[in-house]
Every structure is written in structure tokens, then in C-alpha cells.
Amino acid sequence: MKRQRVIHSLLFSLSLPLLCFSVAEAVQDQPASDERPGLLRRKLDGFLKDDESSDGGRGVHVGPLLPRLVILSSGGGPGPVLHFWAPDLGDSAFDVHASAGISIHAYRYYDAQVGLVPHVGSRLPRIATGTNSLFPLADLERTSSAPGFNLYASARFRDYPREDFYGLGPLSRRTAHADYRLQDGLYEGVMRFRVWRLSLMGRLGILRTSILPGEDDATPDVQVAFTPAETPGLLRAPDFNHVSVGGWFEGRDEPANPHRGVALGVAHSWFNDRHLDAFAFRRLTAEAREYIPLGSNRHVIALRQATSLDRAEPGHVVPFYLRSSLGGSSLLSAYPSFRYRDDGLLYLASEYRFEVRPKVELALIYQAGKVFPETSGFHLHDFRTAYGVGIRLKSPKKVRLRLDVLHGREGTRAHLKLGPSF
Prior knowledge:
It is a single chain. By secondary structure, the protein is mainly beta. It has a single domain, classed as membrane protein fhac: a member of the omp85/tpsb transporter family (Porin). 11% of the residues lie in helices and 48% in strands. It has helices at 2-29, 39-47, 137-142, 222-225, and strands at 65-71, 78-86, 95-102, 108-116, 149-165, 178-195, 198-213, 240-252, 261-273, 281-294, 296-312, 324-326, 340-342, 344-357, 360-372, 384-394, 399-408, 411-417. Strand 6 and strand 7 form a beta hairpin. The longest helix is centred in the first third of the chain and has 28 residues, at 2-29. The radius of gyration is 22 Å and the shape is globular.
């Protein structure tokens, strides 16, 4: 039965390219006509183009209000988010952004930024909302295309009621699956500027967190399934003073649809326990992405390497919920979100990408990742691996939609996502 599910998933993924190819062909090769195209045709045609002249890149909006449908975090499911976006107020450089969202699983997210906020044209600021992204590299990459100098205040509150936990370390068991409710607020001052292709950022703020019983009826609460020794920070989540500095070099031809070039990022963060004197630690994160065309842009080898290394101060530990994780649609996609957590993380990925048409791309995917408790575990052994195939619908500048199906030692998983894999 397990083998049949794997075969069916792979056959399903391989059948989608034919459908997507037919759709893209119809959009691209439809003969000219004097009649106005239907609504579906116009929407699909616009989806696969990069024409932003009519709205400055804002997309659907009513004045400063911009509704969107997104996935706030792994496990939360899709849901609506309403943005308030007022860039360049009064012909100045002053910006105001705020958003509020709720998902089908009652994940709630609120944020606000005031000041010189990083953005491109009139497009919305790009901010990481999930808990399985590499902090703060995810925000560094998302803001790397914004020009000039930025200085702004930022506030964020998240209430995610069913975050997954399988235990710490590379030997955690899938059968130990439990959940918890995460509530946290991050309040920061942020300075950023871009010189040529290099974006530099500094952040200073306070992180406040509460850990409560999870609300997924299908899994036990972390408080029941694990002991306090196995979940540091569970009984009393610490508040942190937080400082981060980092940089991102953007050398890709099209960051959202790359065919050649490199991207490099590194960040160093300090988390100082404000009251308990038990959880202070430092974090180093680094990432590299390379894109090598094979003769032309139709054939591309894409490579990614990422690491996150936490080091607790003497006599301190890192809270379980802040440790970097593998699993989900971003890192080691054949495994469930947050499947592996620990102080250290190492991730490698490679893809062979073939453009059947400029708007349709196929991919062969291989991923390898590991977590480890000490820096001595930073070596190229003992990886969990995943392999599979992908199909992407693209405009010239962006991967608009992708479906990836990957298989690992714990089964096969499919991910339907907006945007590129990396």
C-alpha cells in the first residue's frame, strides 16, 4: 500500500506538466481576435505576465487596502490577510504598513511598520511570517531588492495554535508527534541600506513569548508528551533582548526566477534572556545559492547550501521552540514541518531545471539535511535525504506557482506553493 501511494503521487506529479503545458500554450499561442477575451483568459494571461504599469505592482487593492490570500505558517493552512499600505506619504519617503490575517486553522498574525520601510516601487513590503524560516536571513533576502536607506519601527504579534514538535535531535521519532500553541511579539527598530548588490541590515528589539497547550485534537500537547527537561523553555518562556546584524549579496539575474548568478547571505544574532538568566544564546546563519546555465537558460543547475548554528552561553540553553528546524516546503520537503530541531542545522539542495516553454518549467530535485546538538556535528555525514520532481508556472520575472512531490524515508509529500523553491 505504501509503495502504491508513492507511485500514485509520482504519476500525479508527472501528469501535471501536460496540463500546465497545455494551459501555457493556450495563453501564449492563442490567435489574435477582435473580441475581448473572457475573464478567465484575462486573469490567466495576467497571472503569467509581469506588467505592473497599471497599478505600480500593488495588484488588487481598494485605495490603501490590499486583500491577499496566503499561508501564514506551515500547518496553518491558507487564509485572508488584509494589508494597509501607504508608501511615500505626501511625496515624502515616509511609509506606513500594517496587516492582519487569520487562517482556516485560526492562525492569527498582526504587524505594523512605520518609517522608511523597505519596498520596491509601490509593491507591498515583503516580510517573513512563518516559524520555520531561517531567522533573520529570510527577512534579509526578502528586502534585498529594495533600494536606498531604510530606518523604521516594526511590531509583530503571532498566535499560532498548533505548532508541531517531535522532540529534539536527529534521533527524534515521528510517533512522538505533539503540538503546542505559540504566542509571541517582536518589537524592533531596524536600519538597512543597499550599496550596489549588497544589502546590510541591523535590528534591535524585544522578543516576548508564551507557550500554551496546542489545539490540534489529533495530537497530544507537548506538556503531556515530553518532560520539561526535553523541552527547555516550556514551563516558563523567557523574554529576550535581541540584536541582529547581517548582509545579503544579490547576484542573480532575476531573484524570483533565476537562471544564472549567485546569492550569499550571513547574519549573526544575540538573544539575551531578560529575566530568567537561563536561556541566553548566539546564532550564526549563512546561506549560498548558485545557478549554472547549461548552454542556455532553458537548462539550469540550481544549488543551495544553508546552515544555522546556535551556541548557548555557559550555563544556559536554547528554548526548544526557537531552535532551527528541518521539514516542510522550504527545507527537506519530504518530511513534515518541524520534523527535526536542534542547536545546529545543515541543509543542501540541488535541482535540474528544464524550461519546456518560457512559462512552464520541470525540475528534478534532491535534498539533504541534518540537525545536531554541537558544532562537532557539522560534517557531511548522517543526512536525511529526499528526492522528487517539480512543475512550475512562471512569468518572465517570477515563479508564480509550483508543485513539488518528494519522497524520503518517512514517505512522500506534495507541496503546492506560490513562488520559487529558492
